[in-house]
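Handout, section B. The chain below has 757 residues.
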Amino acid sequence: MSEQGKGSASASTAAPAPGSDTYKGWLFKWTNYLKGYQRRWFVLSNGLLSYYRTQAEMAHTCRGTINLATAHIDTEDACNIVLSSGGRTYHLKASTEVERQRWVTALELAKAKAIRMMNDQSDDSGDEEPTSQSDRSELQGTLKILISKLDDLSTCNDLIAKHGAALQRSLSELEGLKVPLEGGEKIKAVNERATLFRITSNAMINACRDFLDLAETHSRRWQRALQYEREQRTHLEETIEQLAKQHNSLERAWREAPTLVSSPPSAPTNNQGSERVRKEEASDEDEDTEYFDAMEDSPAFITVTASESTQHRRSQSNLSGASGGQASDWNQDDSMSPSCNDVSGKELQPRRQRRTHIPDKPNYSLNLWSIMKNCIGKELSKIPMPVNFNEPLSMLQRLTEDLEYHELLDKAARCDSSLEQMCLVAAFSISSYSTTVHRTAKPFNPLLGETYELDRLEEFGYRSLCEQVSHHPPAAAHHVISQRGWTLWQEITIASKFRGKYLSIMPLGAIHLQFHSSGNHYVWRKVTSTVHNIIVGKLWIDQSGDIEILNHRTKETCQLKFSPYSYFSRDVPRKVTGVVADSGGQAHYILSGTWDDKIESAKIIQSSRGGSGSEGKQKTVYQTLSPKLLWKKYPLPENAENMYYFSALALTLNEPEDGVALTDSRMRPDQKLMEEGRWDEANSEKQRLEEKQRAVRRRREAEAADALDEGREYEGYQPLWFHQRRDSLTGETNFVYKGGYWETKERQDWSMCPDIY
């Protein structure tokens, strides 16, 4: 036994004294997956179980308390105890089974006493009889059944005792006979077992009697709880009926009201058709408004959506107070100025027919033991992870999927207003997460020097190139240029932290976007992705954190907040909110929606300081025009659930292309085998490629060591299509595109490409 175990066994050996409500001792409490069970000092007193790190902490610091009156006590094995009450659960472990049983006995006694005290207190406040005779008769009938069952058990107990006594007499008589020594020992053992059986039956009948007493004690509490629930249901039905009547009266009033006259206070409407019941008293606010919850961490605000008729009554002074006097630049019939919607340039070329499906995902069971046994005796870096955890795309292709909604950037390039352009850029940054909602599988880690091109010049006017520029740490560089007026580039390094139940994935690096005509240069970073239920349960992904998009030319900003999912929150899951502000901090647009469905923008026409929120912070009230749709997610292809939940673009990323580089991800053999459903072959090929990459790295390390010994300078690995440059805006050193790839493709001269496959 460990020293901790010995201390636990010796610290609480005394059973609870008669009439005493206090029990103390050491137990081991589960903390987390890293620290496991930790030794803690527990004190049971007055129906409360509290714990401390040491006995000295009892005077000043309690680490936690659980009320036994509402707690459930369970025993998992010989030494474990599980206490759960509401959302709190304690996993405890005693040093021995005897010690565990002492604690369970003390906890059960304390729980029964706490329940009796709670019922006595509630009885003193005045008993409530059942509201109807049927309730009383039902409860009495239940108690009668319980009593009859208890009588049956008592009869059985009497019979067991009678027959047990007869059995013991017979055994005693056998012991008196002259029998061989071995037979006498067996008869004695049977006699002892019969005695234990009689004791057990007595304990059973006593437990049943205690159960009946407890049921009688709880009967009044059940009656009061039932009465309360019935009153709540009646109240809810009355409220729903009243709301239905109000809804009908509002509809009639709206139909009867003249179309050019503003609606009376009793019939609020808005341009979106949504109606909300408001107080009937007149107020300074407009009759046609809609309220939204404020962001918590950003400057708190409330938005109020104004109707078109309200806008006709707004004075010019109010408008200029919110938007700097630029009221006439807003087109109420569309979310953006006309320049954003004009289609400029040459007509679209006929689109090439792309594939719309891939082979269905095989239904292979994952044998964890087969993985674990391959890890025995190996270095961590050499453990082969099977393709069962993957999807048949590389990380480079996942980066390219950010371009699925490239038309948002095409539209933004045509905007004259930089603030409207910022709204579209923000929508584009959010849209890149829409493909992740069902994509819990892991993409393939690119090999060093691996590339991926996506040439959509004829169809959509852009060309994209990715290259894996570093392996430790893994980093990928990405460059996109569009004939429709924009260029995007980024270098992303993935950092991850395993936190027991979930995995946090933190993309490091900035994303740059520049528009050719205006010179507007936007920079932002990605939020944290979290994969939940890593160990047990169904995997699901959430996005959380803040994004700040900065236009370095105009200093305009957009603050986006990705709200983490919470079971107890009343907000829409996967919610995103944002504010677009000018260089002086004046807000002009509100963004709202979800990262897996759609994003809307609303132009602010007036702002004012509101009351304090729940946390004491003063909220800003923004009055806006009706929200306009910026982005809407495309529906998934048919049968997507059997094709790794790929989007329409993702289905085409592995489609064979003529003339691509020899290092392109489409050429990767293990990835192609997995897509074809040949997973066993894919696992073998994946292991071969990883071992080949390790051999190349060992050779480079040996060359570097030789150069150091000889005093020579060793350059090391250099990417083919990207080189490191210091960014003048962020001050960071990044890999940027140095050119030459598309010219090399035209010449079809790939002789400089490394042999990585």
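Note. DSSP finds 16 helices and 27 strands in the chain. Compare this with the example in section A.
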